[in-house]
Amino acid sequence: MEGGCCTSSTNTSSSTATATTQKRKHSRQQNQEKPYRGIRMRKWGKWVAEIREPNKRSRIWLGSYSTPIAAARAYDTAVFYLRGPSARLNFPDLIYQEDVLRDVSAASIRKKATEVGAKVDALQTARHASPEDNSRVLLSEKPDLNKYPENSDEE
C-alpha cells in the first residue's frame, strides 16, 4: 500500500507541474494578444476598452479603437479618475494630473476617456498612413495597360 501511495503523490506533483507549465504558456499567449491592461481585441481587429466600476458589477464602456495604444490610453484615463494616482497604468508618464475631473460619475469618466482615446487613435492612424498611400488614393486616373511606361528621366 505504501508504494501505491508514493506513486500517486509523484503523479500528482508531476500533473501539478504540467498544469503550471500550461498556465505559463497560456499567460504568455494572452500577453501577446493583449499587450496592455484593460483592453481586448475583437474578432475583426478593433481594440476595445472597458473598466469595472468600484464596488459594483457594472462596467464603464470606454470605446472601440483601431490601435491598442489608443484603447490603453482610454483605459488609463478612466482608471486614473476612478482610483487616483496610485492606480496601475499602462503609460504612467502620459497621464495629465493637472486636469482635475470634478464630477466622478461614470458618464463623465466615459466622456473624458473616449476623448483621450479618440485623440490618440487619430494620431496613431495618421502616423501609420504614409504619404505614398495618400497620393495613390488621390490619383483617380487608371493607367492604360496597353501603353509602355514613359521614362521620367530625360538624359
From TrEMBL:
Record has GTP-binding as a keyword: no
Biased composition (Basic and acidic residues): 129-147
Localisation: Nucleus
One CC-aspect GO term: nucleus
Extent of Low complexity compositional bias: 7-21
GO biological process per UniProt: ethylene-activated signaling pathway
Annotated ranges, domain AP2/ERF: 35-92
Keywords: DNA-binding, Ethylene signaling pathway, Nucleus, Transcription, Transcription regulation
Keyword Zinc-finger found: no
Single GO MF descriptor: DNA-binding transcription factor activity
SUPFAM superfamilies per the UniProt record, alphabetical: DNA-binding domain
Primary site of residence: nucleus
Location of the region described as Disordered in the Swiss-Prot/TrEMBL record: 1-36, 124-155
Family matches, as Pfam families: AP2
Coiled-coil spans in chain: none
UniProt-listed InterPro entries: AP2/ERF_dom (IPR001471), AP2/ERF_dom_sf (IPR036955), DNA-bd_dom_sf (IPR016177)
Protein role: Probably acts as a transcriptional activator. Binds to the GCC-box pathogenesis-related promoter element. May be involved in the regulation of gene expression by stress factors and by components of stress signal transduction pathways.
Protein family according to the UniProt entry: Belongs to the AP2/ERF transcription factor family. ERF subfamily.
PANTHER family: ETHYLENE-RESPONSIVE TRANSCRIPTION FACTOR RAP2-1-RELATED (PTHR31729:SF2)
Protein name: AP2/ERF domain-containing protein
Source organism: Salix dunnii
Upper classification of the organism: Eukaryota, Viridiplantae, Streptophyta, Embryophyta, Tracheophyta
